[in-house]
C-alpha cells in the first residue's frame, strides 16, 4: 500500500487578504471528492499547475473532518497489530501544529488528542468484548529533534545533555536509546502529560509564525494487548514536523537561523529520501538526518499518512510549489502493510536452584515494534517480578477502574518453542585476544540461564556442547577495538586524545568483578552509547563532513538540471547548496546569472550572505586571471572539481568527446611528468607530491594546489586506515584513493615547484 498523502489548505488568518489567495482545491469531475490542488505558475499567471492527492481539504474543513476521514479508520488496524504513522509536513505557518495538536476547545482539538481519545475508547471496547480476557495498556513516549539532536519531552529540560539521546537500529527499526515511556490510563492522564510535555518543546516567534515550532515533535502511542500468554504490540506515531523556512522572509536572528538551517537541512534530506525512493534508488539517504532516520519513510511497515499543510497565499508561492512537488512524489512510496507479530509471555520464573541466587534476566527476544529498548526492558522486568509474586495481571482498564491500572509486560517475552537449550551454559574463560568465538575454558563465570534449561532437569551429566559465548574481557576488548577502529578512521587524533579511552585495566577489573551477566550487557550498552556520543562529538568537531557531501550532491544535481535545460531546478539546487559553501563567489555568480536569466529580481536574497555583485566581479576577475577561484577557496574548488569529474560521466558521448578534444588541445606535459613512471624512478615533482601525501600531515597536504582543509583531512583519514609506513607508492595509487580523481592529483602535482 502506498503512503496516503492528503493536502489541507488552511483558512486565511487575521490580516491576510482574499485577494492574495492563489491556491485552491478542486475535483477531477463534478460530484467527485476534492483531490486536486491548483496553483498558478509563478512565471505565467494564466497557466495553472494541478497536483493530485488522495484527498484535498479546503479552508472549510474542520478538525473533526480531517480526523474522521483520515485517522479514525486506522484505529482498528492499530488494534489488529499494524503500526500507524501520521505526519504533518509543510512550510512554516501553514497549520501543521494546528492539525496535529490543535486548540484546547473541543472542536479545535487536533489529530493527537482525538487519536488518544479513540484509542482509549477502543481499548475499553476490546476489553468489554472479550469480557476481560484481553487487557490493553497504552504507553506514551514523546520527543523532539532540535538542531538534529533528540530530546525527551517527557523529561524536564534540565535533564537534557548537550548531545541529546542517541539513536540505534534494532530489528530494522530506529530506536531512541534512553527515552522514557509513561503509561497512560485515560484521556485526562494523557492530557496532563501532553500539555506538560509541550511546554518543554522549543517554539519561538518568527516573522511568519508567532508560535513557530523549532523542532520536529514525535509522539509514540504504544498499544499493548494481552490475552493470556499472547502479547500483541503496535504503535501509532503522530509527528509534527517543523516547517521549512525561507529566511529571506523570517528575519531570523542568529539563533533562529541556526535552528532554521537544521530544520531546512532535515527537510531537504527528507525530500531527497522521497526522491530516491520514488526513483527506486538502492541508496536512500535516511542516515543523513535524525528525522529521516526516525521517520524511516518507506521502510516502516503498517500505514502511513502524510498531511501536507498549505497556506493559500501568494507570499508562499514558491514554497508551496516546492512542498506540493515533494508531497506528490511521496504518494509513490510503498509501505508494507505487515502486522506486528504476536509474542508469548514466559511462564513465571522459578528459582530452580541451578544457579542459586544468581539467576539472571533472560535474554530478551527481539521486540518487533519496540521503540525504546530500555523502557521495554524495564517494564518487562517489573512485570516479570510482579508476575512471579502475583497471578498474571489483568492489565489496563481505561474507564471502569476501581482497580488501579497495572503495568503488564510489553512485547518482551519469548514465543513458545520446543524445549531445547538455546545456549549452553558452560563456563568460559577470558581469552587473551578479542575473538568473536570464545573458547571453552575452566574458570566459571555465571551466565544467563535460558528459561528452557530452568525447566529441565539438571544436565550436568550431558556431554558438553561447543560454547559460543563472550566473556566480559572479550566484550570489553571488542568494544575497545571497535572504538579504536572508528576513531582511527575518522582520524580525529586531537579530539580522541582530549577524551581518552577509559582505563582498560580498570574497566577489565570491574568487568571481572562483575558476576552478573546482565551487568555485562549493560556495560556493553553503556560503552556503545558512549562510543556513539563520542563519534557524534567528533563529527561535530570536524565541522560535519556530511555537509560537504550534501553540498556536492546539490551541485551535481544543479549541473544535471542545467544539462536537462531545467534552469529553474538548477537555480533551486544551487541555492540549496549555498548554505554548504557560504559566500562562495563562483556559486553566487552562478545563482545570480541564473536569476537574471529567469527574470527573478530578488537581489536581497543573496545580500545577507555576500554582496552578489562583488562576488560576481570576483568570479570574473578570477576567471580573467584563468585561475578559477582556487586562491579564494581551495575547498570549494575541490568541490567544483569533484562535481566536474562526476559530471563527465554523465555527459552525452558527443559532449564528452568535445571535452576530451579540448583537453587534448591543451599544452601537454612532457611524457615523463605525466605518467606513472612505468619503468624508472618517479620524477622529482611526483616524488615530492608522494612525500607530502605520505607525511600524513594535514597542514602540508593542505598546501597542495586544490586541497582544502576537508580534502586534506579526508586523505589523512584514508591513509590512517593503512598501516604505519604503508605509504602511497605511485600517482596511480594516489588517484585510486577515494576522493582523489585524476584531475585533482594532476593539479596538485603541477602546483609543486621543484628545485633542480
Ligand atoms: N485550519 C486552521 N484553522 C484555523 N487556524 C489555523 C488553521 N491552520 C493554521 N491555523 C493558524 O495558523 C497559525 C499557524 O499555524 P501553526 O502554528 O499550526 O503552523 P505550523 O505549520 O505548525 O508552523 P511552524 O512550522 O512554524 O510551527 C496559527 O495561528 C494557527 O492557529
Automatic annotation (TrEMBL):
Keywords: ATP-binding, Coiled coil, Motor protein, Nucleotide-binding
Record field: compositional bias (Low complexity): 450-466
Coiled-coil regions listed: 514-541
Disordered as annotated region, ranges: 406-466, 602-687
Family matches, as PROSITE patterns: KINESIN_MOTOR_2
Taxonomy, superkingdom: Eukaryota
CDD domains, sorted: KISc (cd00106)
Keyword hit for Coiled coil: yes
The UniProt record lists the keyword Nucleotide-binding: yes
Domain Kinesin motor: 2-333
Binding positions (ATP): 90-97
InterPro entries registered for this protein in UniProt: Kinesin-like_fam (IPR027640), Kinesin_motor_dom (IPR001752), Kinesin_motor_dom_sf (IPR036961), P-loop_NTPase (IPR027417), RuvA_2-like (IPR010994)
Any one Pfam family match given in the protein's UniProt record, by short name: Kinesin
PANTHER family (alphabetical): KINESIN-LIKE PROTEIN KIF22, KINESIN-RELATED
Annotated family: Belongs to the TRAFAC class myosin-kinesin ATPase superfamily. Kinesin family.
UniProt-recorded name of the protein: Kinesin motor domain-containing protein
Taxon lineage: Eukaryota, Fungi, Dikarya, Ascomycota, Pezizomycotina
Amino acid at each position: 500500500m502506498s503512503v496516503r498523502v492528503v493536502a489541507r489548505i488552511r483558512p486565511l488568518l487575521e490580516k491576510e487578504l482574499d485577494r492574495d489567495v492563489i491556491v485552491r482545491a478542486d475535483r477531477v469531475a463534478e460530484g467527485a471528492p476534492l483531490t486536486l490542488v491548483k496553483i498558478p505558475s509563478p512565471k505565467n499567471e494564466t497557466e495553472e499547475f494541478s497536483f493530485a492527492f488522495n484527498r484535498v481539504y479546503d479552508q472549510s474543513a474542520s478538525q473533526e473532518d480531517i480526523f474522521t476521514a483520515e485517522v479514525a479508520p486506522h484505529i482498528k488496524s492499530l488494534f489488529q497489530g499494524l503500526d500507524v504513522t501520521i505526519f504533518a509536513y509543510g512550510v512554516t505557518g501553514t497549520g501543521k501544529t494546528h492539525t496535529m495538536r490543535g486548540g484546547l476547545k473541543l472542536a479545535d482539538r487536533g489529530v493527537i488528542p482525538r487519536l488518544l481519545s479513540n484509542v482509549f475508547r477502543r481499548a475499553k471496547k476490546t476489553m468489554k468484548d472479550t469480557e476481560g480476557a484481553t487487557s490493553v495498556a497504552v504507553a506514551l513516549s514523546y520527543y523532539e529533534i532540535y538542531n538534529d539532536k533528540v530530546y525527551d519531552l517527557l523529561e524536564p529540560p534540565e535533564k537534557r545533555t548537550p548531545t541529546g539521546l542517541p539513536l540505534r537500529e534494532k530489528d530494522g527499526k530506529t530506536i531512541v536509546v534512553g527515552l522514557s515511556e509513561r503509561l497512560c490510563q485515560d484521556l485526562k492522564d494523557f492530557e496532563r502529560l501532553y500539555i506538560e510535555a509541550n511546554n518543554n518543546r522549543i517554539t519561538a516567534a518568527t516573522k511568519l509564525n508567532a508560535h513557530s515550532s523549532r523542532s520536529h515533535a514525535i509522539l509514540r502511542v504504544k498499544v499493548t494487548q494481552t490475552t493470556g500468554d499472547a502479547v500483541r504490540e503496535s504503535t501509532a506515531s503522530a509527528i509534527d514536523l517543523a516547517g521549512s523556512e525561507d529566511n529571506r522572509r523570517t528575519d531570523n536572528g542568529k539563533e533562529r537561523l541556526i535552528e532554521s538551517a537544521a530544520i531546512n537541512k532535515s527537510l531537504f534530506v527528507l525530500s531527497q529520501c522521497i526522491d530516491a525512493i520514488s526513483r527506486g534508488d538502492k541508496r536512500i539517504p535516511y542516515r543523513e538526518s535524525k528525522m529521516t532516520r526516525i521517520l524511516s519513510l518507506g521502510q516502516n511497515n503498517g500505514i502511513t499518512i502524510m498531511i501536507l499543510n498549505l497556506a493559500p497565499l501568494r507570499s508562499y508561492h514558491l514554497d508551496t510549489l516546492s512542498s506540493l512537488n515533494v508531497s506528490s512524489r511521496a504518494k509513490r512510496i510503498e509501505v508494507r502493510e505487515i502486522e506486528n507479530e504476536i509474542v508469548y509471555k514466559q511462564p513465571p520464573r522459578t528459582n530452580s536452584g541451578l544457579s542459586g541466587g544468581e539467576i539472571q534476566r533472560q535474554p530478551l527476544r527481539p521486540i518487533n515494534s519496540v521503540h525504546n529498548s530500555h523502557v521495554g526492558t524495564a517494564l518487562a522486568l517489573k512485570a516479570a517480578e510482579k508476575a512471579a509474586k502475583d497471578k498474571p495481571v489483568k492489565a489496563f482498564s481505561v474507564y471502569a477502574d476501581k482497580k488501579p491500572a497495572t503495568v503488564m509486560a510489553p512485547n518482551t517475552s519469548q514465543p513458545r518453542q520446543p524445549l531445547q537449550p538455546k545456549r549452553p551454559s558452560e563456563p568460559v574463560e577470558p581469552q587473551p585476544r578479542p575473538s568473536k568465538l570464545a573458547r571453552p575454558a575452566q574458570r566459571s563465570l555465571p551466565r544467563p540461564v535460558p528459561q528452557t534449561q530452568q525447566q529441565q532437569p539438571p544436565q550436568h551429566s550431558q556431554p558438553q556442547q561447543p560454547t559460543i559465548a563472550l566473556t566480559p574481557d572479550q566484550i570489553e576488548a571488542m568494544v575497545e577495538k571497535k572504538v579504536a577502529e572508528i576513531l582511527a578512521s575518522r582520524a580525529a587524533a586531537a579530539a580522541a586524545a582530549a577524551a581518552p579511552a577509559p582505563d582498560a585495566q580498570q574497566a577489565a577489573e570491574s568487568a571481572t568483578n562483575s558476576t552478573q551477566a546482565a551487568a555485562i550487557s549493560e556495560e556493553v550498552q553503556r560503552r556503545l552509547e558512549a562510543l556513539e556520543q563520542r563519534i557524534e562529538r567528533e563529527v561535530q568537531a570536524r565541522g560535519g563532513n556530511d555537509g560537504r557531501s550534501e553540498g556536492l550532491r546539490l551541485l551535481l544535481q544543479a549541473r544535471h538540471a542545467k544539462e536537462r535545460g531545467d534552469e529553474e531546478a538548477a537555480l533551486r539546487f544551487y541555492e540549496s547548496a549555498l548554505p554548504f559553501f557560504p559566500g562562495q563567489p563562483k556559486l553566487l555568480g552562478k545563482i545570480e546569472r541564473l536569476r537574471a536569466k529567469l527574470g527573478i529580481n530578488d537581489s536581497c536574497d543573496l545580500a545577507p550572505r555576500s554582496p552578489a555583485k562583488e562576488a560576481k566581479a570576483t568570479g570574473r576577475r578570477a576567471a580573467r586571471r584563468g585561475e578559477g577561484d582556487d586562491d579564494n577557496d581551495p575547498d570549494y574548488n575541490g568541490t567544483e572539481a569533484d562535481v566536474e569529474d562526476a559530471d563527465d560521466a554523465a555527459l552525452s558521448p558527443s559532449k564528452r568527446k568535445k571535452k576530451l578534444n579540448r583537453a587534448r588541445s591543451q599544452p601537454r606535459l612532457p611524457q615523463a611528468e605525466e605518467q606513472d613512471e612505468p619503468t624508472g624512478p618517479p620524477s622529482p615533482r611526483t616524488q615530492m607530491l608522494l612525500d607530502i601525501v605520505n607525511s600524513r600531515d594535514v597542514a602540508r597536504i593542505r598546501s597542495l594546489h586544490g586541497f582544502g582543509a576537508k580534502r586534506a583531512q579526508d586523505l589523512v583519514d584514508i591513509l590512517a586506515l593503512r598501516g604505519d609506513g604503508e605509504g602511497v607508492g605511485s600517482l596511480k595509487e594516489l588517484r585510486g584513493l577515494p576522493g582523489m580523481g585524476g584531475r585533482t592529483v594532476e593539479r596538485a602535482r603541477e602546483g609543486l615547484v621543484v628545485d633542480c
